[in-house]
Amino acid sequence: MPAIIETVNITHEAAWLPWAVFYFFFAALAFSAAIISTAWTLLRRPGWKRAARMALLVLLSSAIVAPVALLADLHQPGRFWHFYTHFTPWSWMSWGALFLPLFVALAIVYSWLALTQPKDGRLAWAIRPLAMATLAFALLVALYTGMEVMVVKARPIWNTALLPWAYLFTGLMGAAGLALVVDAFIPGDHATAERKLSKVMGYAALLSLLTLGLWLAEGLTGISDAAARTIAAISGSAYWRMIGLALALSLAVPILGFFIRGLPLAVLGLIAVAAMWAFRWVVFMDGQMIPKTGAGLYAYRLPMGADGLLGIIGIIGLWLAVIIIVTTITGPAPRQGAAQPAE
Amino acid sequence: MSTRRNLLKGAAALGGLAAFAAGYAETAARAVKGLTSGTDGQRPRDRIAGNAFPPEYTVDPESGELRINPAQQIAFTMCQGCNTMCGLRIRYDRKSGEILRVTGNPYHPLSADAQLPYKTPVRDALLALSGKDDAGLAQRSTACGRGNAMLSQIASPFRVLTCLKRVGPRGSGKWKSISFEKLVEEVCEGGDLFGEGHVEGLRAIRDLKTPLDPQNPEYGPKANQLAVIHATGDGRNPFIKRFAFNCFGTRNYGHHGSYCGFAMRGGSGAVMGDFRKFAHGKPDFEFCEFAIFLGSAPGNAGKPFKRQGRMVAEARTDGKMRYVVVDPVMTNAASHAARDRDSWIAIKPGTDAALAMGMIRWIVDNHKYDAAFLAAPGPKAAGAIGEQTWTNATHLVNVETGRFLRGKDMGWAENAEDPQKAKKLAKAPVVMTENGELAHFAKADKGRLFYSGKVQTPSGEVQVKTAMQMLAESARRFTIAEYAEKCGLEPAVIVNLAREFTSHGKKAAINIHGGAMSANGFYTAWAVLMLNALIGNWNWKGGVSPSGGGFPTFGKGPRYNLKKFPGMVKPKGVFLSRSRFPYHKTSEFKRRKAAGKSPYPTRAPWHPFSPPILTEYLTSHFDGYPYKLKALISFMANPLYGQAGLAASIGEKMKDPKQLPLFVAIDGFINETSALADYIVPDSVMYEAWGWAKPWNGTVTRTSTARWPVTEPKQVSAKSGDKVTMELFFIAVGKRLGLPGFGDAVIKGADGAMYPLNRPEDWYLRAAANCAFAGKPVPDASDEEIGLTGVSRIMGEIEKTVKPEEARKVAFLYTRGGRMEDYAKAYRGDQLTHAYKKPLRIYNQKVGTSVNTMTGKRFSGVPAWHEQQFADETPLRKVWTKEQWPLDLVSFKSNLQSSYSIASPRLRQIVPQNTISIHPEDAAKAGVKSGDKVRIITPGGTAEGLALVREGIRQGAVGIPHGYGHWELGARPHQIDGRMQPSVPGLDAGVNLNLLGLPDVRRGGHATLLDWALGSAARTALPCRIEKV
Amino acid sequence: MDTSRRAFLTGAGALTCGAAAASVGAKAAKAGPQRHGGDPSKRYAMVIDLRRCIGCQACTIACSTENRIPIGEFRTIVSQYDVRDANDPDGAVYSFTLPRLCNHCDNPPCVPVCPVQATFQREDGRVLIDEEVCVGCGYCVQACPYDARFINPVTNTADKCTFCVQRVDAGLLPACVETCTGGARMFGDVKDPESHVSRVLAEAGDEVKVLRPEMKTAPHVYYIGLDTRFQGKVDGAPAMWTKIRESQEA
Ligand SMILES: Nc1nc2c(c(=O)[nH]1)N[C@H]1C(S)=C(S)[C@@H](COP(=O)(O)OP(=O)(O)OC[C@H]3O[C@@H](n4cnc5c(=O)[nH]c(N)nc54)[C@H](O)[C@@H]3O)O[C@H]1N2
Ligand SMILES: Nc1nc2c(c(=O)[nH]1)N[C@H]1C(S)=C(S)[C@@H](COP(=O)(O)OP(=O)(O)OC[C@H]3O[C@@H](n4cnc5c(=O)[nH]c(N)nc54)[C@H](O)[C@@H]3O)O[C@H]1N2
Ligand code: SF4
Ligand code: SF4
Ligand code: SF4
Ligand code: SF4
Ligand code: SF4
Ligand SMILES: [Mo]
To answer: Average pLDDT, whole number, for chain B?
Structure first.
């Protein structure tokens, strides 16, 4: 019997809803895809052309969906403009409000241009600078999304310098994974793209796993107080043990591609996307179920409505529609004789 | 192929967009609303203070200038969130009448630490509550959790607002509204009211001449076939009592006492020699150094809940008190933060008498009692040593008869000339002086405490013992080790408690209440309360105090006599509960004797020293012993929810009009009992009603709490324009039946003139006049204060009703929420001002000479250990063995809920449901974890609930907090005039222990398990077992 | 605030690509949120003497009523525990009640995170929210180490204890203090050495504790009689609030 039994207390609801999970999910897909795409659009690495194209598709679709999800996480979406009338330089979120729209705008123009490559080549010159600018803002978005969560000391599970890295690595893994999935649906030469993307996915998964391992080690050794507190809070929970194991396993799957030839890469990619999403879900939703003062854990129950299941289906539906429309318009490959980015 | 693919893609895209539209519609709508109107939520009243109400007044921190918010009104009236009846400060919106918030009345001792002097101007009182110079911290006056929350009762969707008549069978939950006049007519005249055959009306029942049972004429007239039942001293009880006893003339008025805390009252009555009013005392928290709360939980429950809570908090912090809580359950009475001042002893349920008898034994064996106090045989001797009361410890008892040896046995009266004096002499108890002489109790200055032997009387030798001797012998029937084993404690615990209890002189006290509601409750409470007598702590600072009491209101007051009226009936006959009436004077006794049969056992006990007890009313009616009722009127009482085992025993039968032809409930709500009525009369609720209440004991100054309609009552009016209330109903019935005491010229004024009783105001405002003029009359109220406190709302009524010279004084009472003696008057030197001056009983002759009619055996006249037993003295555990029922079910009150507070949403949000406390070891045995659903099974019923596995309960005990597990009061929506009440989830949450209550299987019939001697409900220490569901 | 800024800076250093922007941010952040409004000569605080608390929840309900908090949301709650005494060899069991509310921290982590400065601190120490500005992003809810904030489902903005700003500014006491049955809650100005709270604090000396001191938030709700086991996240079996709700829905 524990020495303390809580007999009266209340459950605190999650202030960040599943919308936030999806925002961080799509934002990370977008900034990661932007990074991957520059292998061809900026660096012209051989063999990266189709892979980069797939990444651009992921970028374009995710960049459109991410802010939509973010807006819904505000309890006063109609007041989004307050971010600009009350700019607050000491708040990461405020910076995010600056970075995000710029990134999204850049990403859309950049990916659209790079995907469609206008016939007359008139705008070809713009692709490289756009890629550069998009990359810069992608990194800023990666930075702010990581930092925004990391600085919350009140939530030890978030309050670790490893978190931004974990976001970045899982993001790259998921974006490459999603690109692999998209690739499977678009006719053409799959082999090279698959090789490149699965490599990114595999390495990113490995780094993600290492990051998580490092966090665990920090926590268990007590080097990181925050990690130790988190582990203390969740270690008694069978649920957390289960999700910990499930996360580790799903992060290990994308690495398998290195070792086992002939695995269906699109399936691995899908698992990678799922793992990336699940990581964010666990960190956000389950993380918010760790009481700051009360005993034990709160129980999160997914609402059925807009702030829960319906919203989740909606936002996934939106992405699906966008990716279908985008791929349909842009077609399977760049038009013959279309502009190439300047070299 | 490609078109099919495109089709698929198109469908997928469309599907995705549709899903998005569905999932995002709300966000989009909110964004649009936010953009267009500035917020997508409700805009609060103030951008910083949110929806908070504007304050009722403001105080300038520098100048102290006080400004009243003209939109709001402050008023002082009474709470009815539990049975404590505290004085409150109500704040309402003047325009809508909506009650905004309530908190304490600073003039009232139940709400304030040391109440403000009565004459403090209201403006100064408001200042004293403010933040200016931190005044309000010292002068805090509070409402408790319930008190704060219960304002929801006023606008509750479950209120009865019209006169209701049932549609369809009783209990079907369907009603129609009828006019008040029609209701009164039907109830009085009877007829085929429901298409179910003829129903006798009150007119037919009210027959004061014809015996209801010619075989047993002592049962009284037919009028006794109406029972009127009520809850408690809510400030309105004298009215209903007057109707029942003195106007209608039935014997059968009963209140909830017998299933509230009557075991304590009975035990206290035995010690205090008061089987009329059952007086009792409470520790003087403020100066007490050591207290034992045994089966009473100050701070968790208790009457007065709030005052006790505050006093115990203060005592363990800044006061001198250390205290021990003896309870199978750990409640909020013991605080970890003050752990060097309090501790919890987890006793085995139902065994407290063993603990107390063990303590008595130790105290007697070690001579740790207050010998000087106990040896004083009478008032003079007591006075000489500074005591205001004395005991009969030294009085000699004739062992054979159980009667005191008195002057008449000694032949003292024979020589006296004055017959008055002779009578007195004859009655005087006899004591033995130190040198062995027999003396008049009031003349000896000291008596022998212990004596057992023969004494010489004119009529021969008599075997006698002193009362103290009898107590000592009773205590010595078992060793301390044996007692310890019975109550599951170490012998050292008993010894240490006894030692500490006797180490603080008179500044120690022991208290008992609800925890004594077991089948051996009377002797338990008596044994416990005997301890106070042994240390002589009565009336002393830090000891035990009776109540400060109230001012005369409904009695024969200085202005009006509200007690007596022309034609007043004196009820006759046997109470339905067979209380007080000596069985040996019944026809039954005589018949059985004449037939040469033993008069014992009777079908059911004749309770010799109990008052009328509601626990026996309804079951006796259904058993037809002594007789059956024809009609029942209930007001606020809810025995079907509150009396353990009653719902199982008679719940279904109550639905049968053939068994009980007429049932009228007067209630603000439809509770478990009134749901089974034929008619419901609506009533004022909380702060809408009139009344004058006395505080429960534990208040050291004199107080009368005013209850008055601070806002307009919400229920319908009668044709006369008066709101339909309990009072109006009885007035209307009284007038229609031509009963004495109602109408014009029925209240006698001190001026000799007669005054009317046609409206509630006629009664309550005259009671107020009595209160205002008691002793030194109160001042006149000023216009300003009448306005400040909302009394202006009733000023017209006051002026219309009382005499001009009374009006302003009556108004003054209402500007203060009653009349309260100043706190400065609480003590006189080392003693309490309001003292108990009647003698205390170590031996109680009434008990000692009474017979248990179920066995023919005499009761013990001193406290003694009895285990729980049925009325026929068969031990409970002999029938319901430990093997089959290994656990004891314990009742304790929810610290938040009262028995009728469940519908308050702000209360429910904190603890939405009660849980079943189970000790880890018992839980492990049953394979139960916290949060599991468990089934509790007793010989009387089965219930399921959520387990809370905790160490805060004794192993072997299972605890259920009271206040949940409702099946009415909103838990089941009723249909009124074809419209359903709202269905609010959660009102039926949790478990009610009383559905697990037990029958007295040895009595048979409908009887529920009661204390075998007294008839108080047994709701704790019930044999049970648990199962995981 | 210095710690969150440190975290800010180390994090920034870690991601070299974002260094440029981050340094701009860091520079701006140095300015930090400024206190505004209120009387700088005052510092409001609450002192809670737990020995006096009887767990009656009068405070909880008074707050809920006075401030018209939607049912099921709380600006203050009195958590309750069964606790075994750590110092007692027999492991005596007691009841422990712990009123919780916003601490009106001197170093409130909820303030700097707010992206629109809707949450701010007055000169007198009270941490407040401007409902008209709040975008309901929930960031402050995350940042408060005491679970003292929530998103009000009626206004859709952040909500928490205001120290009853409307009453205190009117010269009255907060609702929860006014009605505290046990007299456990005390309120006043700790800058005034003569105030009741100052005197109580001085008298209690070392007995005075705050919740989560390691967060360096400088809370201004002080406790007397606080067992250190309750200062942070309580290590024990949780209450059954959720279970109860589930059982009611079933
Ligand atoms: N919160 C709250 N307060 C109330 C009320 C309410 O409904 N709710 N009602 C008011 C009324 S009407 C009354 S009469 C008073 C009653 O006030 P109390 O008598 O103080 O309260 P109870 O809970 O009835 O009983 C007191 C304690 O007896 C314990 N007990 C049960 N069985 C045993 C036993 O066998 N031995 C011992 N030693 N203890 C035992 C219970 O666990 C409980 O803690 O409270 C009043 N105050
Ligand atoms: N198991 C168990 N049983 C218990 C107890 C326990 O602790 N455990 N406690 C016992 C005790 S101490 C007592 S006192 C009894 C109480 O039992 P009772 O006195 O019989 O009744 P209550 O349940 O208090 O219900 C009073 C009714 O009055 C009505 N009412 C409430 N407020 C108002 C109002 O303002 N105006 C009007 N007109 N009507 C109103 C409601 O219908 C309510 O149901 O229960 C006892 N039963
Ligand atoms: S103790 Fe009872 S009467 Fe007094 S304020 Fe609380 S609920 Fe009301
Ligand atoms: S919820 Fe409102 S107050 Fe809180 S951080 Fe967001 S905008 Fe600021
Ligand atoms: S307790 Fe929380 S909400 Fe209150 S000031 Fe501190 S951090 Fe902010
Ligand atoms: S100070 Fe006011 S807002 Fe804060 S908890 Fe107390 S009542 Fe609620
Ligand atoms: S009102 Fe006072 S005594 Fe009651 S729970 Fe709140 S802090 Fe404790
Ligand atoms: Mo009671």
So the answer is: 96
- Domain ranges in chain C? 5-249
**Would you say domain C5-249 falls under CATH 3.30.70.20?**
yes
Is the Cα torsion angle B160, B164, B170, B172 positive or negative in sign? negative
Q: Is residue A185 part of a domain?
A: yes
CA distance B987 to B586: 47
Q: Which ligand number lies closest to the CA of residue B296?
A: 1
- Report which protein residue has its CA nearest ligand 7's atom 2: C180
Nearest by CB to C166, which of B54, B145, B910?
A: B54
Q: Could you give the percent of chain A with pLDDT greater than 90? A: 82
- Please name the member of A92, A146, A293 whose beta carbon is closest to the beta carbon of C147: A293
Ligand 7: does its nearest atom lie under 6 Å from the Cβ of C188?
no
DSSP summary character for residue B337: G
Residues 6+ apart with CB under 8 A from A223: A217
Structurally, chain A folds into a number of domains equal to 1
Tens of pLDDT, residues B849-881: 999 999 999 999 999 999 999 999 999 999 999
Q: pLDDT band at residue A135, thresholds of 50, 70 and 90?
A: very high
Three-state secondary structure call for residue B253: strand
- Chain B residue with minimal CA distance to C132? B47
When pLDDT is averaged across residues B178-182 and rounded to a whole number, the result is 98
Residue A38 sits at the vertex; the CA angle it makes with A94 and A135, to the nearest 5 degrees, is 15
Length of chain B: 1029
Question: What is the whole-number distance in angstroms between the Cα of residue C195 and the centre of ligand 7?
Answer: 21
Residue A248 lies in a domain: yes
Q: What is the pTM of this model?
A: 0.96
Contact A152 C113 (CB under 8 A): yes
Mean per-residue pLDDT over chain C, rounded = 89
Chain C interface includes A137 (CB < 8 A): no
- Tell me the three-class secondary structure of B870-885, residue by residue: CCCCCEHHHHCCCCCC
| A122 is a domain residue | yes
- Would you give the DSSP letter of residue B44? P
How many C-beta neighbours within 10 Å does residue C86 have? 11
Q: 């004058």: which residue's tokens?
A: B692
On the question of pLDDT at B90 being above 70, the answer is yes
Say whether pLDDT at C250 is over 50: yes
Chain segment B218-259, per-residue pLDDT in tens: 999 999 999 999 999 899 999 999 999 999 999 999 999 999
Task: Tell me if B52 and C164 make a contact (CB, 8 A cut-off).
Answer: yes
Q: Is B595 on the interface with A (CB under 8 A)?
A: no
Q: Quote ipTM for the complex.
A: 0.96
Strands (E), chain A: 4-8
pLDDT, tens digit, 9 for 90 and up, residues C177-187: 999 999 999 99
The residues, ordered by sequence, that sit 6+ positions from B910 with a Cβ below 8 Å of its Cβ are: A8, A10, B145, B896, C57, C60, C61, C77
Domain housing A261: 18-296+326-330
What CATH number did the domain enclosing A33 receive? 1.20.1630.10
* Alpha carbons A62 and A70: distance in angstroms, whole number: 12
Tens of pLDDT along B411-455? 988 877 888 999 999 999 999 999 999 999 999 999 999 999 999
Q: Does any CB of chain A come closer than 8 Å to the CB of residue B8? A: no
Residue given tokens 């990194």 in the structure block: A139
C119 close to B (CB below 8 A): no
Of B17, B21, B40, nearest to A78 by CB-CB distance is B40
* Closest residue on chain B to C163 (Cα): B49
Q: How far apart are CA B718 and CA B283, in angstroms?
A: 47
Q: Is A226 a member of any domain?
A: yes
Gap between the Cα atoms of B60 and C170, Å rounded = 7
B784 CB neighbour count, 10 Å cutoff: 12
Q: Considering only alpha carbons, which residue of chain C is nearest residue A157?
A: C142
B33 CB near a chain A CB, below 8 Å? yes
